[in-house]
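Quiz preparation item.
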């Protein structure tokens, strides 16, 4: 049922329709109220002018009956019977004179009102039509004309049918409704068109992504996109490139593993096919195959977790775990192993991989240390201002000559040397560090032994715009 609301275009169009509809409805209501008041005010103003003209032409005849000069109200509507426009003058003794249009009907009496003040009220007309009546009680005290001398209070009334005014109001309502409805539809259509036009870059990105998926193009760029969408295009391209690199690394690891296993498998087969199988040689080859599989699986797993899949791992906490575990081993029982440094430093590496790298370096340091091994964790930045975490594993052993350090890191790239166990741990650490975007270097420790310096990427803390 909520499926249509998943569309951003429909959402924005619906919001626009609600706002435009509500705004125009309120504006239309206000405009109609103002125009209605103006029509009613104009209607009452016309009645007031007619009432003033009627009072101005009022006099009392010799017979005591009220009279109105013919020139006072010359409007033809007052002459046509039942035209909807009427006037009536009633003296204090009940004598009356009325417009010919009133015929034989009479205007209803007005509610009690103070003398000299015009009073407006509604009443039914001769044909039971709705009328607006304006009445005024003229007294002798307010009139100084000799024609009204001695006359008592005189009630002067002017009335007009409100049908014409109601028609004007109805026509105004129809006109306003039509205008605001057309305007509303036009505004909603314009807003919807604006949304569709604004979202066109996203549709182009979607089509380009479909082309990347089916292989018809390599990247989204050089796709023309607005400044708000361009960073998204760049990030998607980097994500696609990263996924391709991950797949390529996995293929490479599988190929390397298959190639590396050919020789041990062949030797193992020969050892077992002899008249007297070489069990010891077969076990050695099986052990070598196991180490190869573990090595390549570790590389493949780290390669898969690198990049977008990497997580923040507290380095010092992992280093303390390694230090505590190593100190319980019999071979390192007499060594002082400590982990110090920045407790909030976070490396962008999987926790298990970080533990394997620190563990290999610490194990190597414990082999050569005399009495002390130190793991120091610091956070900093590279020359390119890229955030990194540095893990320095130092010992107080004999150290390593400078001409052997590079070879110690590279050792293990040849499978036969790796099988013999000469430097495979450092090689694994160097490989894992390279896969996650870090590096391993060897130097001289302040304690006199070897210092293995491991630099790993840390997640940047900048704001995303």
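Solution:
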């Amino acid at each position: 049922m909520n499926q249509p609301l998943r569309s951003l275009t429909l959402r924005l169009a619906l919001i626009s329709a609600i706002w435009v509809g509500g705004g125009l409805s309120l504006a239309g209501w206000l405009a109609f109220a103002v125009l209605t008041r103006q029509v009613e005010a104009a209607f009452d103003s016309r009645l007031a002018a007619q009432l003033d003209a009627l009072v101005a032409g009022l006099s009392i005849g010799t017979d005591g009956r009220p009279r109105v000069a013919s020139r006072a109200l010359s409007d033809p509507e007052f002459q046509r019977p039942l035209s909807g426009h009427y006037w009536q003058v009633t003296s204090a003794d009940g004598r009356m004179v009325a417009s010919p249009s009133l015929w034989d009907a009479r205007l209803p009496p007005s509610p009690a009102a103070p003398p000299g003040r015009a009073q407006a009220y509604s009443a039914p007309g001769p044909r039971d039509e709705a009328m607006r009546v304006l009445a005024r009680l003229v007294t002798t005290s307010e009139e100084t004309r000799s024609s009204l001398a001695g006359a008592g209070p005189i009630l002067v009334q002017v009335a007009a049918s409100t049908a014409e005014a109601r028609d004007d109001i109805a026509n105004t309502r129809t006109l306003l409704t039509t205008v605001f409805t057309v305007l509303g539809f036009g505004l909603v259509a314009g807003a919807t068109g604006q949304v569709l036009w604004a979202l066109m870059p996203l549709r182009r990105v979607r089509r380009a992504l479909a082309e990347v998926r089916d292989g018809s193009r390599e990247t989204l760029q050089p796709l023309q996109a607005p400044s708000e969408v361009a960073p998204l295009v760049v990030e998607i391209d980097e994500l696609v490139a990263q996924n391709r690199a991950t797949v390529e690394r996995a293929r490479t690891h599988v190929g390397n593993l298959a190639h590396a296993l050919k020789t041990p498998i062949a030797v193992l087969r020969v050892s077992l096919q002899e008249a007297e199988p070489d069990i010891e040689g077969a076990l050695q080859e099986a052990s070598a195959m196991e180490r190869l599989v573990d090595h390549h699986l570790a590389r493949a797993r780290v390669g898969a977790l690198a990049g977008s899949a990497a997580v923040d791992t507290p380095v010092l906490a992992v280093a303390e775990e390694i230090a505590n575990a190593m100190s319980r081993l019999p071979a390192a029982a007499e060594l002082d192993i400590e982990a110090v440094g920045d407790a909030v430093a976070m490396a962008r590496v999987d926790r298990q991989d970080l533990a394997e790298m620190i563990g290999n370096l610490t194990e190597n340091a414990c082999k050569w240390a005399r009495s002390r091994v130190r793991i120091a964790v610091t956070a900093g930045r590279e020359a390119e201002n890229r955030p990194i975490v540095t893990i320095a594993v130092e010992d107080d052993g004999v150290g390593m000559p400078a001409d052997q350090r590079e070879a110690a890191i590279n050792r293990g790239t040849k499978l036969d040397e790796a099988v013999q166990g000469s430097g495979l741990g450092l090689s694994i650490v160097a490989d894992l560090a390279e896969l996650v975007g870090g590096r391993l270097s060897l130097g001289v420790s302040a304690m006199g032994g070897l210092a293995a310096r491991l630099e790993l990427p840390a997640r940047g803390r900048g704001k995303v715009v």
